[in-house]
Amino acid sequence: MDSSGGSSGGGAPTISAVAQGFGAPGAAVAKKAEPASARPGIMFTWLAGSLASCGAVTFTNPFEVVKTRLQLQGELAKSTPNMVKPYHNVAQAFWVIGKNEGLRGLQKGLGPGYMYQIMLNGTRLGFYEPAKGILYRAFTGQSSDSQRPIIPLNVAAGGMCGMAGAALGSPFFLVKTRMQSASNFAAVGFQHNYTSSLDGLRKIWRDGGVRGLYRGMDAAMMRAGAGSSVQLATYDHCKSYISRNLGHRGYDDNSVGTHFLASMITGFFVCMVMNPFDVVSTRMYNQKSSAAGHGGALYKNPLQCFYKTVSTEGFFSLYKGFLAHYLRLGPHTILMFVFVEQIKAFGKKYI
């Protein structure tokens, strides 16, 4: 799998480079640019990213359910020694949900999760190259293929595409979060009790219209922008470092082992930066509507959610569900780029 992408001197990133990291400093050897005719088009890249991320989320969705419930547990409640917490840690929460709600409980929100992945990662992958090209021409007067990668521009392109994808997928993230928090056994947060994705969308539209469907979108855009920028700026650097230092042991640029290590390292830093935004977006999406029907009952905007969460529960409440988040994000990243590479190989052979 060729995921050197933006690390090459003048070559456009491959699909896997777009998925994990757009350009990185310290590339050991400049590689020959890939002919423009050989690069996948926007629609193919969009389709590959969509299918790959859907395949990945099928396996990682249970950790998303666990993360969501850990983040909502004890919402705006000061911790006390006698506080009852149905979920104590990732392993125990996984066991409790699986034992009492079965596989269906662990896979709650998978349907809207698929739609969100299509909107988010399809947009991220499909429109990254055009966005990067616009930024390079605006700031350097040259195309992104004619010079070595400029990390700030790559980060900006990745962040903008991530925020655009989050905005498009916001209604599906909204329904997904509310379905994942619902439980007849150990409820946390406000319980919306949708019977299906369509039922959730219909009820949200009935109660709040377009504004209701896009409640929390600003928090989701902050989350996706922060996460995409860190992920896309660090993955290739980690991969390059590993291949330079462990290449003699088989960990070269094309090694799955290299991709695995780079993804897990990157995932940790992404979680460190993104988890506070993730907690805020989860709570913004899951809150009930205000009595007037305009906005949420608990938080008016992400900044107020940050303030109320920290002032009531303490700073480390922003890192609730961190381990579950990491266990979801690391494997999701690995599975996503592995699936992307297989789809790309299939496309080159048959399309």
UniProtKB/TrEMBL annotation:
Chain positions of Solcar repeats: 40-134, 149-241, 254-346
Main location: mitochondrion
Transmembrane intervals: 260-280
GO cellular component, one term: mitochondrial inner membrane
Pfam annotation, one family: Mito_carr
InterPro entries: MCP_dom_sf, MCP_transmembrane, Mito_Carrier_Antiporter
Keywords, sorted A to Z: Membrane, Mitochondrion, Mitochondrion inner membrane, Repeat, Transmembrane, Transmembrane helix, Transport
Membrane topology per record: Multi-pass membrane protein
Compartments it resides in: Mitochondrion inner membrane
Family per similarity comment: Belongs to the mitochondrial carrier (TC 2.A.29) family.
The protein's name: Mitochondrial oxaloacetate carrier protein
Organism for this UniProt entry: Coemansia spiralis
High-level lineage: Eukaryota, Fungi, Fungi incertae sedis, Zoopagomycota, Kickxellomycotina
The encoding gene: OAC1
